[in-house]
Design goal:
Blueprint (H helix, E strand, L loop, with lengths): L1 H11 L3 H13 L3 H4 L1 H23 L2 H20 L4 H29 L2 H32 L3 H21 L13 H19 L1 H4 L4 H23 L13 H31 L4 H29 L2 H19 L7 H27 L7 H33 L1 H4 L3 H26 L13
């Protein structure tokens, strides 16, 4: 229960900034393109910290690491709560991301380690209700808080919840995972930072500076080169910093690819939807939040059910249904106009959230069940890291696509240039969802479900 409470509070901060982005950008005197890094930069920092969590989980006692993660998150909340500049706000967001990365990794490893295989899907479904629904419902709550109080109230509420969670965890949390002494590979960690950070930063800057700009080319090239070096090192040293050999498992590799595509689309749409409601349609932050509320409720219902369905029927049917719903929702947004009611957009968001509920946690449960018990920490860290970075890239790429297309089509579309940019952006998301459906139909075996883990 304590894990679920902490997960809800920490996961909400991954997307709460999407609704609050316009007022924050105005208060801090920054552009929306720069402001979106409060979300994508958060995801980037989480992606960087994730490989480190696999080492920390093996090296440190469970309780000490869990309390440390909450404490780092609280420190980030305090910094953001009192920030007056973008750099200070970004520092707070990075601290929050590091704390959330630790909490998310340890929660998944604990659940996947202590429950029997026949219950993993169901339990992970309930966990998915917390870490999956929270980011989706966050924009609704954030919108209400922004309109009634201001954007700082978002951090104040999360701070109160996390302080309570810290007190409870101090008394009820136990050391449930085995630890052993492992040497810290400093070089591998540095390589992972440049690899994950360079690729995400380079792609994220495309929307602001253009494809050929030095701020895109240099970090992207650095990220690709260091990724190759990092991968080579992990596959050739005796004790890897992050065990990449687990990608040899076909099912695990497919779960990683599927999770990355899902987050690429999901995080992109989570940033675009509030911009559509507020910046294009001109509604308030509260209305923006209410547009996403029905989808949040749908995910709250679907996520636990998806876990039970996975336990009984396996991954393939869930995978196909989730990908199909994702295509339907994104293609629906491609056809909306300035005269389309936001209720229609809210309906498409419900379908999108059902798709996310079908895929998010089942993909993790399915993939990690095909690796050794001793590699669960590496498997969850790698999968969560890569999907988080994919989410950061998705946020940056889709905001960039919408901005560039809207700016370049003003002469042709006039006041409808913004909605045209949004249409094309969701068409691009549909292409990604179609790729996800192709994986589900042609690569996932029928009846493929969780198997009993081996030592």
């Amino acid at each position: 229960m304590n894990i679920l409470v902490s997960t809800i509070a920490s996961s909400m901060l991954s997307t709460a900034m999407t609704t609050a982005l316009p007022p924050i950008a105005a208060d801090l005197s920054i552009s929306v393109t720069t402001g979106q890094w409060l979300t994508s930069g958060y995801s980037l920092a989480m992606g960087i910290i994730m490989p480190l969590t696999a080492f920390l989980i093996r090296r440190l006692p469970t309780k000490k690491l869990y309390l440390g993660g909450i404490s780092i998150f609280i420190a980030g909340l305090i910094v953001s709560l009192f920030s007056n500049t973008f750099s200070v706000m970004m520092t707070g967001r990075i601290l929050q991301a590091c704390g959330n990365g630790i909490l998310m990794s340890i929660a998944q490893v604990v659940i996947l380690s202590i429950y029997p295989v026949e219950r993993k899907g169901t339990v992970m479904g309930w966990y998915g209700l917390a870490c999956g629904t929270a980011p989706v419902i966050a924009p609704t709550l954030a919108g209400i808080l922004v309109d009634i109080i201001n954007w700082r109230a978002i951090f104040g509420l999360a701070l109160a919840v996390m302080l309570l969670s810290l007190i409870i965890a101090w008394f009820v949390f136990d050391d449930v995972l085995e630890t052993y002494k492992k040497k810290f590979d400093t070089l591998s960690f540095i390589l992972s930072v440049f690899a994950f950070g360079g690729v995400t930063l380079g792609i994220g800057n495309i929307g602001t500076y253009g494809l050929t700009a030095p701020l895109v080319f240099l970090p992207l090239t650095t990220g690709i080169i260091t990724s190759v070096i990092f991968t080579y090192r992990q596959l050739h040293i005796e004790e890897p910093f992050l065990e990449l050999g687990i990608l040899k498992s076909r099912e695990y590799a497919l779960s990683v690819i599927g999770s990355m595509l899902l987050y690429f689309i999901m995080m992109g749409s989570s940033v675009i939807m509030p911009l559509y409601v507020q910046s294009i349609m001109g509604y308030s932050a509260t209305v923006s939040g209410l547009v996403t509320l029905p989808g949040s409720l749908a995910m709250a219902i679907v996520s636990p059910l998806a876990g039970k369905i996975f336990d009984k029927m396996g991954m393939k049917k869930l995978f196909i249904c989730g990908a199909a719903f994702l295509i339907i929702s994104n293609m629906g947004m491609y056809f909306i106009t300035m005269h389309t009611s936001v209720i229609i957009a809210a309906s498409y968001n419900v379908i999108r959230c059902i798709a996310i509920g079908c895929l998010m946690m089942p993909l993790i449960t399915w993939g990690t069940s095909y690796v050794r018990n001793t590699q669960v920490a590496d498997a969850t860290a790698l999968l969560t890291s890569l999907r988080t970075i994919a989410g950061a890239v998705g946020s940056a790429v889709f905001v960039g696509i919408m901005t560039v297309i809207a700016d370049n089509s003003v002469s042709q579309y006039g006041n409808s240039a913004g909605i045209h940019g949004l249409n094309i952006t969701f068409l691009c998301m549909s292409a990604g969802a179609a790729l996800l459906l192709g994986i589900a139909v042609f690569l996932v075996k029928a009846g493929s479900g969780a198997q009993k883990s081996f030592s």
